Amino acid sequence: MSNKRNEVFGSTSAVESTAKNIEAMQTVSANDWLEKEFGFKTQVYEVPLPSKGLLYPEGHPLHLVESVEFLPISTREEDIIRNKKLIENKTMGSELIRSCLANKRIDPKTLFPGDALAILYAIRTASYGAEYTTKVKCQSCGTVQKATIDLGELDIKEMPEEDIVPGVAVFSTKLPVSGITVEYRIFTEDESAKLGDENDAREKRGVPSANSTVAMQSLIVSANGVSERGKINLLASRLPGQDALHLRQEVAKHEPGIINKYLFSCKNSDCRHEAMQGIPFGIEFWLPEADV
Predict the structure, then answer these.
(1) Beta-carbon neighbour count of residue 215 at 10 Å?
(2) How far apart are alpha carbons 218 and 229 in whole angstroms?
(3) Concatenated DSSP letters for 145-191?
(4) At 10, is the pLDDT very low, low, confident or very high (cuts 50, 70, 90)?
(5) β-strand pairing of 257-259 with 220-223
(6) What secondary structure letter does DSSP report for 132?
C-alpha cells in the first residue's frame, strides 16, 4: 500500500493518531491498527497556518510552528457535525478541529480565528474535495441560485512580519485624531467567542448591544503607557470614530487569516451582477450530500 501523503494548502509529513482500549487494552496507533487489521491507513494532511506560529507565546504548542497535521473527517467527526447542541452553542467548529488535529496538545480555543478557519477549510477540502456547491442569493436582483466554489483557490492573507515580535500578539499604533499611542492585541477564538456571548447576553436582558465599545475596551492593552482598566475602558467608550476605524484597520492588517471570498456571477440574464462575496458556511459545506 502506498504511503504517499496528500497536500492541502501545503506540504505534508507523517503523523500517528492514538486510540485507547484496542487489542488487550493497550494504547496503540489507530492508523497502525487499521493498517494491520484491515490493510487500510488513513491519509494524513498538513495545512500551513496563516500566523506561521509567530503570534503564539512561548510554551504554546504552536509557538513558531508554521503548519499542523490533521486527519480528514470520518464517521466520528460526522457525529460532531450533526450534533445540534454543538451547533447551537457555536462550538461545533472547535470540536471538529480538536477531533481532527494530530497534535492533541493544541486547544482549538487558543487558536487565532484565521488559523482556525484555515484548518477548517483544509479539513473540508481533504475530506470531500475542493469543489463546494451551495445556494446563494444575488445581492442585486435577489435571485436564489446554485454556486460552485473552488476551495483550492483560497489564498492566505499575508501579515506584515516586520511588525511582529515572535511570541507577542500585541502591536502599537498612534491614533490619527486624538494622537494617543495605543497598544492593542489580537483576539483568539475563545476571546472572540466571549465578546459575542457578552453582547448576546446584553440583548437577552433587553440592554442595547455595545459591539463597538466592548470590542475597543477588550482590544486596547494600554494608552500612552497607561494600562489601568478603568481608564482604558472610559477612553475606549469615547474614542473618536476615525480613531476607532483606524484601530480596526490596524487589527485587520495584523490578524492572520484566509481570504475566504469568491467571485459571484448572477445567472439571471436580466441581471448578470458580479461581486466578491464571503463563502457561506451552510449545512452543505460539511455534508455535501445535503440537497442544494
Answers:
(1) 20
(2) 10
(3) EEEEEEGGG-EEEPP-GGG--TT--EEEEE-TTT--EEEEE---HHH
(4) very low
(5) unpaired
(6) E
Among 105, 104, 125, 107, smallest CA distance to 115 is for 107
Output the CA angle 128-47-84, nearest 5 degrees: 50
- 128's CB contacts (< 8 A; 6+ apart) are 73, 288
- For the chain, how big is the Rg over CA atoms in Å? 22
Cα–Cα distance measured from residue 288 to residue 131, given in angstroms and rounded to the nearest whole number:
10
Say whether 27 sits in a helix, a strand or coil.
Answer: strand
Query: What's the sign of the alpha-carbon dihedral 104, 108, 111, 116?
Result: positive
pLDDT (tens digit per residue) in 165-186:
999 999 999 999 999 999 999 9
Quickly state the pLDDT bin for 1 (edges 50, 70, 90).
Answer: very low
17: pLDDT strictly greater than 50: no
Measure Cα distances from 162 to 158, 166, 236, 246, 284 in Å.
Answer: 12, 10, 27, 19, 40
Kindly state the cell numbers that stand for 58: 512561548
d(CA 32, CA 69): 17
Enter the pTM of the model.
0.83
Written as one string, the DSSP assignment of 201-222 is: HHHHTTPPP-HHHHHHHHHEEE
d(CA 138, CA 123): 28
